[in-house]
Amino acid sequence: MTDLLYIKKASQVITVSGSSEKPKSGKAMAEIGVIENGSVVISGDRIVYVGTDQAAEEFVNTQPETVTLVSGEGKVLTPGLIDPHTHIVFAGSREQELEMRLKGAKYMDILKAGGGILSTTKATRAVSEEELIAQTIKRLNRFLLHGVTTLEAKSGYGLTLEAELKQLRAAQKLNNIHPIDLVSTFMGAHAVPAEYKENPDDFVQLIVEEMLPVVAQEKLAEFCDVFCEEGVFTIEQSKRILEEGKKLGLLPKIHADEIVSFGGAELAAELGAVSADHLLRASEQGIKAMAEKGVIAVLLPGTAFFLMTEPANAREMIEAGVPIALSTDRNPGSSPTESLPFIMNLACLTMKMTPEEVLTACTINAAHAINRAEEIGSIEVGKKADLVLFDAVNYQTLQYNYAVNLVDTVIKSGEIVVKGGAIC
Ligand code: IZC
Ligand code: ZN
Hints:
Layout: E1 4-14, E2 34-43, E3 46-52, H1 53-61, E4 67-71, E5 76-79, E6 81-83, H2 96-102, H3 107-112, H4 117-126, H5 129-145, E7 148-154, H6 161-177, E8 181-189, H7 200-217, E9 223-228, H8 235-247, E10 251-256, H9 264-271, E11 275-278, H10 284-293, E12 296-299, H11 301-306, H12 314-320, E13 324-326, H13 340-351, H14 355-361, H15 364-369, E14 387-390, H16 396-400, E15 407-412, E16 415-419, E17 422-423
Parallel strand pairs: 1-4, 1-5, 6-7, 7-8, 8-9, 9-10, 10-11, 11-12, 12-13
Antiparallel strand pairs: 1-2, 2-3, 5-14, 14-15, 15-16, 16-17
Bound molecules: 2H-imidazol-4-ylacetic acid (IZC) and zinc ion (ZN).
Zinc ion (ZN) is lined by residues 85, 87, 255, 329, 331.
């Protein structure tokens, strides 16, 4: 008989329940389902009870299994945090770009000069799949220590068929060996590689005709993403790639309107993308169109912070009815952080999101942004037991304390993987 794991009497259980079919938008983003002195019981990898501690005791007493107790006293229990936008699989580093940017160079100038994404591409192409896995595991461990139990991982530092496949296979293997679940996105359209500088349409052709079919055939990704931005991929090129991906079963995502207002949000709505990400310069019409089509806005305030620019207008989006998710955007150039809790702080402090909206954005809405909301993103009976106990007596403390890690315990698929703030 499988053991039960009984998380007893957390000062608050944040369930974020009732929204597995549709992401939360507007005022519903503030409904996070707080249970005071609540308990959760897990059997195998599933949640089998959520509610008051008194009823939990009665429930456990009727079960024949042996019970392992985890005290929740003085702690807040939330769903495992979900990061729906990362470029975590890469080699090398780009710390020299900080000084360049401090002296006035822009992120795009560095890319145009052959640095940025292209410098990480060079480093990623040069290493073996094993080395790529070894470098990425360290980052995954730090994500786990910050309460993340599932994250999306994009390719896009290969930019040749072979090197893109290496990145995607590394993500697949990491998904099998690491407690964090990885959900893969093919992003061959991350930058135009030096070899195609003079004829970018030929690179688009290569993506459409050679890369996408293999990625789909080998089931190496669930989503397709494009860096749709002035000087990177045009609206027409992005549309072509995402439409071809869609035909092959890859759901569209878009890096939209990050640096300039470019029509990315409108394109996301037109294609029925699952999400449009960044949106710092999204137009009013673009935001309206996203709300109408239910496209999720994945906002990345850490990137705005690190690039020293104004973040997206989250309040306008919430008022327009666009569902919001939050992410680290973990990458070596514009957001080298593995702390989703710090992104939660930034979402409050720089975008005026409320602590409740932020929790929704990092749990159920993030699950929707990676098409996993039936399985994860809330604490509900039947869902996967991915949970975090924070060393805080109420959820507001999570967003109030900044740049500290309050994660005490992480439970992934019913197993305790972090205890006392350390990996088990
Ligand atoms: O490596 O700079 N914005 N892609 C689009 C990135 C940032 C990642 C990078
Ligand atoms: Zn990105």
